[in-house]
Amino acid sequence: MRRPVQAALLILSGLALLRVSLFSDLYLRYVKAGMRPLLIASGAVLLTLGVAEAWSWYRRTRHDGDHLPPRTAWLLFLPVLTLALWAPPALGAYTAAREAPKSTTTRPQDFDPLPATSPLPLTLGDFTDRVREDHTKAIRTRTVQMTGFATPAGRGGGWYLTRLIINCCAADAQSVKVRVYGTPSPKPDTWVTITGVWHPHGTLGTASAEVALTAHTLKKIPRPTNGYADALPLG
Predict the structure, then answer these.
(1) DSSP characters for 29-50?
(2) What is the pTM of this model?
(3) DSSP secondary-structure letter at 58?
């Protein structure tokens, strides 16, 4: 690869990383929040190297003449320009529909008494654990409130309230799903806050219990800045 192309790619790559990590929150579509300092540092390093390479090439061509790179080299700019000008969207219903739900690991003795708040704010993971692992069946008559995005459920009726969780980046995303009955499904990827009660199917507190909710209310909300977390409902 000719030096001007190398310099341009380094500069564009650096600018693209800085755009999504330093000047916006777009990086949260791809990695965890804790990765931001590393992305900013990487962008700064790439930008510095690109400027240094461009300056070195400029000084040399002042004496030796300009040499144009081959035409095929410009194809390398396409993926960099994509990130610089148009950031790919975050993962959503398409990915979640093809992911098996994240397994729970909470043991029965780990559960604390539920507060008296009604509706009770819960994460999708907490609700799943309470339905299948809590032998006290404390969730049976409680009205709960959860936030996630809509995913088609396919067979069995209803639809899924979903969260995608990442350990490092979008490539290792796992889904947490709660099947919703009693209200029509919003469009896929629509973020909502739902209140409702456990949909009685199976034996509560055992693996036979269906992780499902009979919805009472549904409110559409904007996508949270960091959608890759099983967080409590948004206010």
Answers:
(1) GTB-GGGHHHHHHHHHHHHHHH
(2) 0.74
(3) H
